[in-house]
Amino acid sequence: MTNLKNLLLVFCSLTSHLVVAQNSSSDLLEYEIVYSALPWANLSGGLDQGFVYMDNADVTAKLNINELFDWEESLSIFFYGLGNHGGQATDYMGDFQVASNIQAAPSWRLFEVWIQENFLNDRLSALFGLYDLNSEFDVLRPGTIFINSSFGIGAEYAQSGLNGPSIFPISSLGLRLSSSITDQWRVRLAILDGVSGNPADLKSNRIALSKEDGALIAMEHSVYLSSAVPDRINRNYTTRRKKVGRDRDIPTNDKINVGGWMYTAEFPEIGDSTFYRPNWGAYIGAQKYWFYSKYDDRYLSMFVRYGVANDRINRIGSAISGGIVFAGSLSEKTDYVGLAFSTAVNGKARLEHSPEDERAETALELTYSFPLRTWLTIQPDVQYIINPNTDASIKNSLAIGLLIQASLGGAW
């Protein structure tokens, strides 16, 4: 952790002399380094009162092969190194949904490495390699401002598989196809190794394809209902979905997502390990923007999401979340205030075999993100967890944190 703190000081020094370059189709190499620090305190309730320090380093680089050979169609290679350190907020809060989206087993790993080819003026895209499913699937942009993990991907989706799906902090090998049928319709399909890493070693990014592990098949259809003016939304905060190598412009349109997933391997039923069932789930989500002025980036946005999973084999049978975000301009930069909730509901089989459990856990989050510099963002955060882990013996948890993000990047 000391090395990462030193790295933050280096960032502060370097970024005072660097101007972050914007993504450009004429760049051969694009890079970005982001350091996130999250001091966190559980003030009351949960398993115990206490303080933890979590931090996360993301190092990404994208090589645009097409620029090297002056090709018209886009061909790129992407590398993503990930480092996680510090404690676990869950050890104090006892929650199921995980209050911190940078909480992970301490390790350094190659999180993603893939090659992507775009065709037909970027209407069709094919990607192969170690791939973060949640970088493109089940994403509602207003929700990305929040720190609780369930606002990044639904709780019923995140729980799936032997070691989770191919998402932070452990990815798996796969193929992703994406097609923009029109400017308003986008369809994605991903086929991934059914087991991410090694369930017995959370620090491992092992690739071991086998018939027993099977595959995870994910599909999503996005419908964009209206167009926002891209130049009017200048997001200052950094998330895993907006790092170098992703879509150059994350759509800020009103949209609806409809998706589903399935594992080809079967899983044991809760309470009966001799009976196996297919593992599947589905979700729907939507985001909406209202702009206050034609001349600046002040707006109000809302999102809502509902998902289900086969509750005969998955603990969480359904999850619902939603929130509201206000973006305003105190200066030339944009700050954000957000309030959101996420409720993860135990399935029928779980309640049958654990009747002492509460029916659901609900996370409430209030957050405020503001940039001190173009390269430095501060985000105070408050979370209140009702029925942590649906365990009646654990009192409701009240916790606070302060996310600090420093970044530098550029292009050659």
UniProtKB/TrEMBL annotation:
Signal sequence annotation: 1-21
Keyword Signal found: yes
Keyword Signal: yes
Keywords (A to Z) from UniProt: Signal
InterPro entries reported in the protein's UniProt record: Carb-sel_porin_OprB (IPR007049), OprB_Porin (IPR052932), OprB_sf (IPR038673)
Family: Belongs to the OprB family.
The name this protein goes by in its record: Carbohydrate porin
